[in-house]
Amino acid sequence: MNRFIQDLSEKNNFQPTHLLRILREVQAQYHHIPNAVIEQLADLLKISRTHIVSVIEFYSFFHLTPRGHYDILISDSITDNMLGKESLMTYFAQQLKVTIGEVRQDGLVSLANTSCTGMCDQGPAGLVNGYPLTRLTRPRIDQISTLINQQIPLEEWPTALFHVDDNIKQPDLLLNNLIQPGDALKALYQRGLPETLAEISQAELRGRGGAGYNTAWKWHLCYEGPEENAFCEVAAQKKQQRYVVCNADEGEPGTFKDRVLLNAYAHQVFEGMTLCAAIIDAEQGFLYLRGEYLHLYEKLQAVLNERRQSGLLGPNILNRGHNFDIEICLGAGAYICGEESALIESLEGKMGIPRNRPPYPVTQGYLGQPTVVNNVETFMAAAAIAVNGGQWFARVGTEKSKGSKILSVCGDCDRPGIYEYPFGTPIQTVLDDCGAHDVLGVQIGGPSGVFISNQEFARQLAFEDLATGGSFIIFNNERNILEIVNNFIHFFAHESCGFCTPCRVGTSLLKNQLTKIMDGHGSAGDVVALEELCQIIKKQSHCGLGQTAANPVLSTLERYPELYQQQLKKISYEPGFDLDGALETARRLANRNDAGAHLTQVEETYE
Amino acid sequence: MSNSITIDGKPIPFSEGQTIMEAATAAGVYIPHLCHHPEYTPHGSCKLCNVKVNGRICSACTYPAMDGQDILNNTQELTDDRQKITQMLFVEGNHFCPSCEKTGNCQLQAVAYHLNMLDDHFPLFYPTRAVDASHEALMIDHNRCIFCTLCVRASQQKDHKDVFAISGRGLNKHLIVNAQSGLLKDTDISMNDQAAHICPTGAILIKHTAYQVPIGERLYDHKQIDQVSLASETLKHDK
Amino acid sequence: MTNKIRIATTSLGGCFGCHMSFLDIDERILALAELVEFDRSPLTDIEHCTNCDIGLIEGGVCNSENVHVLREFRKNCKILVAVGACAINGGLPAMRNFIPLEECLNEAYLYGIGVENAQIPNDPELPLLLDKVRPIHEVVKIDYFLPGCPPSADVFWKFLTDLLAGREPSLPYDLVHYD
Questions:
Q1: Residue spans per domain, chain B
Q2: Which residues of C touch B113 (CB under 8 A)?
């Protein structure tokens, strides 16, 4: 153990910023992070053990106690649930003779739930030791259970089990105009750096992660610094390190387009990052890849190497004197790291807790230096704009939303997959194209977005109408809206980083209050209490996660108030916990079962 | 060029680099807070100091004062929300004031008094949390920890040690100490550390001092937290 | 006498300390008696309450009988008031919530020091314990809360005189205490 950790630390130059990558390897090696390793790492990296422990306990994929040698996680996304995840999970547990959430007695296997793994178009899905299992069926589960019980190493499992499809169904502006490696950089140097930034500005490219911040302006701010720095000595300003970060922590349930873009068009994404680096004068870039996409890691490394060999990455790119390289950092199971400042914290080897703002990452990001954080799709679009010009992009879309949007379409439709549309496209068009029938509603932008009803399908994809990072989940009329909402609310309670009070406590209170109503224990005041809770979480939370965590309830409460009201009893109040169940232990110990040993949930009439 | 903001209509001067909290405190305006302390880097987690800046909610302890900001602090809406946030802190942990030796000197309780909080409003979680009484002079009652990180910051920034950290995620957050055993007695904390005295609740206590001041004669029994806080913090902000 | 405000009081999982504190209003009780009459209460020995205006509940919900009594009060009182720390958050009795009920009963009746004739009581006359002590607002709807352990006599006085005068009851800073 000693040697392994020593070598691992050395390989990572004893850098505390590399803590996540070190812990990932330790977890893979020992199926947990042993205490002795924590002590050793604290010593080698010169950080406190509390720092290491807090990081381990923050990320879902790290454990202080051993997981199974085969650690299986099943995606608990709503789409996986719609494809029968629940009964498959039960079946899996039976076949493996393991309790859900626990490790089997012999330590060979563990089985648990995990947040959406980004395989919504080919679920039910899961992960085994971090690698994706798709299209799970009972026969597949039988097969996997046998492989595990025979202790066949993962490398020898049939590759079909791990097969991931791209499912690109409808290309448009970007996907029909892919660039060749190097084209954008050549165009950049031909046209000039400021001129290329001007093209991106003219394109009115906005961030594709969902928030829609103007990309050219972000790059400009990162390079120029805020106004108050404008008077600083130019030399001092130039000496600053700047960083380019690609946010591939695609954790919003229902989203998987970044997985496909990185699998199929990594060159163009990296090209976009390199372009940005040249413009803002950055020498180091990071691709923050969500832990669930471990299977892409080797392939992406190969693409980076290819680019280094072709002079598109590394020292003196295209002999233009610019040095830039990209490092791939894997996450470890935390939705919150999709928030840009939490992502930066994570890159620094810390818990993914969103920072206080200002300062914003463009002025103080990675290691306190100016940093551009953009979505995978944004970098891809930027590269295309460098080649084709701003006009080419800006002529597509709406007034406030130029260009196209790549959607991850999933849920109840015949052809789930990747669809690209010009901004301004009505929702109905998407539904027609993907073969959605008898639609009840669509969740646009994932749980943090909005649920629209089938009366709203004329609405458009656009920042000014329905903004989305790409998640597009379709529900047909057989689906139960409250169950959908419940799945989303559980997701947020599980993913809240816990930093601020309204989100940490509020999301759990919300989960319990919704359960009370859904289980039929609610009365008149309970929907009022539910909404009040939603408002405070939305208004008072620290970051985007908390501010959107109540959206599933708020957007359905607005559209389907009767659904909530129908759950309520016509009484003044009912307890939110099971009263008779609360007597169970006492009944058993007193060995009683008489009428007096029971309680009704609501009051009976009194004599 | 005069730098000025208004809080609830009252003009308040500030100097460059001050947060809204610092400017307000210096001007004698109290903004409720728990995780903020003038001697330590602002944290911004409790959210009690959330104010409305030009219509947008911001944490006063971390948000910079900027010329012309129109700030709302003492409004019914904010007081209601602050009361609910305080109630969240109460139901999340186990806060039984009558049996807590910090009662009367507790900032969580005092803020709740100040906000006229009469009940817990939400269902209680009753989490099972431990007590660490291993240290001869100090103890940690995790039931009362509100994750403000004041002990973490005090230990790092004043004591130049690294005794505490907040670990875990979401509702599973918890305070941990820097010892292989996980026990306070095996850390290098000492009685004289700032970290030992900074806890705003009864989570970190000095042993053998519990009832030296009788209940009814304690800090917040007769003085509101706004007076206490302004009196002590104005000086510290100025330093 | 039918115009008098009818008040009922009870203690669930409490220590009657709140009742004692109520009596600390001392001679003011004479003025109060002009305006109110007591229905079910330890002060009157009336066993069940009927058509009351105000119900004052001390103590949290520890057992099945507490639930029945609380429901009777809710049904018969126009205004129901949680009085004291235990009614509001379970109070000291709720500190058993962190020990599994089985362990509590085993310690008390089976394996504890000095236990004779070890047996967990099973007489049907005895109410069964809930696995956790609960504040009363988690079992019935509560209209007002009077914090304190106990709330001082002045709290009772202020609250009742507000109500009797038709004012929305409120407690000034110096009357709000949790200890």
A1: 4-80+229-238, 95-223
A2: 173, 176-177
A271: phi then psi, degrees, rounded to nearest 5: -65, -40
Mean pLDDT to the nearest integer, A253-278:
98
Strand (E) or helix (H) holding A304:
helix A297-309
Q: Which of A38, A41, A48, A504 to mutate to test the interface with B (most CBs of B within 10 A)?
A: A504
- The mean pLDDT values, 10 residues at a time, for chain B of 239 residues are 89 96 96 97 97 97 97 97 98 96 97 97 96 97 98 98 96 97 97 97 95 92 94 67
Q: Please give the distance of CA A89 from its chain centroid, rounded to a whole number.
A: 22
Q: Give the residue numbers in B contacting C (CB under 8 Å), as ranges.
A: 90, 94-100, 103-104, 109, 112-114, 116-120, 123-124, 126, 128-129, 215, 221-222, 224
Contact B112, B90 (CB under 8 A): yes
Q: What pLDDT digit, counting tens, does each position of C70-107 carry?
A: 999 999 999 999 999 999 999 999 999 999 999 999 99
What are the residue boundaries of the structural domains of chain A, listed by start? 2-58, 70-165, 170-394, 404-479, 482-566, 580-607
Cα(A180)–Cα(A182) distance, rounded to whole angstroms?
6
Contacts of B224 in chain C (CB under 8 A): 173
Q: Does A482-566 carry CATH code 3.30.1490.20? A: no
The residue-averaged pLDDT of A150-156 equals 97
Contact C124 A594 (CB under 8 A): yes
At A196, the amino acid letter reads T
User: ω before C172 within 30° of 0 (cis)?
Assistant: no
ipTM over 0.95: yes
Phi-psi region of B24 (alpha: psi -120 to 50; beta: other; left: phi over 0): alpha
d(CA A286, CA A373): 9
Helix spans in B115-238 (H): 150-157, 219-222, 225-238
Q: State the pLDDT at residue C110.
A: 95
Measured distance CA(A449)–CA(A344) in Å, rounded: 23
Q: How far apart are CA A389 and CA A248, in angstroms?
A: 25
Answer whether CATH 3.10.20.740 is correct for domain B4-80+229-238.
yes
Architecture of domain A404-479: Roll (3.10)
Strand partners, A452: A442
Instruction: Collect all residues with Cβ–Cβ distance below 8 Å to A83 and sequence separation of at least 6.
Output: A123, A124
Chain B residues touching chain A at CB-CB below 8 Å: 42, 44-48, 50, 57, 59, 62-64, 81, 84-85, 88-89, 91-92, 122-123, 125, 146-147, 162, 164-173, 176-178, 180
Nearest C-alpha neighbor of B162 from the set A48, A395, C176: A48
pTM to 2 decimal places: 0.96
CATH code for B95-223? Answer: 3.30.70.20
Burial status of residue A172 (CB atoms within 10 A of its CB: 0-12, 13-18, 19 or more): middle
- Rounded Cα distance, C130 and C66, in Å: 10
Instruction: For A170-394, give the CATH class.
Output: alpha beta
Q: CA–CA separation, A193 vs C131, rounded Å?
A: 70
Residue A596: list chain C partners with CB under 8 A: 64, 124, 127-128
Question: Residue A519 burial (CB < 10 Å; 0-12/13-18/19+)?
Answer: exposed
- The SS3 assignment for A476 reads strand
Enter the tokens of residue A163.
């097969």
DSSP structure class, residue C168: P
Report CA dihedral (C85, C88, C93, C95) to the nearest 10 degrees.
-100
For domain C5-96+132-175, which CATH number applies: 3.40.1090.10, 3.40.50.700, 3.90.660.10, 3.40.50.720?
3.40.50.700
Helix (H, G, I), strand (E, B) or coil at B32: coil
Please provide the CATH number assigned to the domain covering A70-165: 3.40.30.10
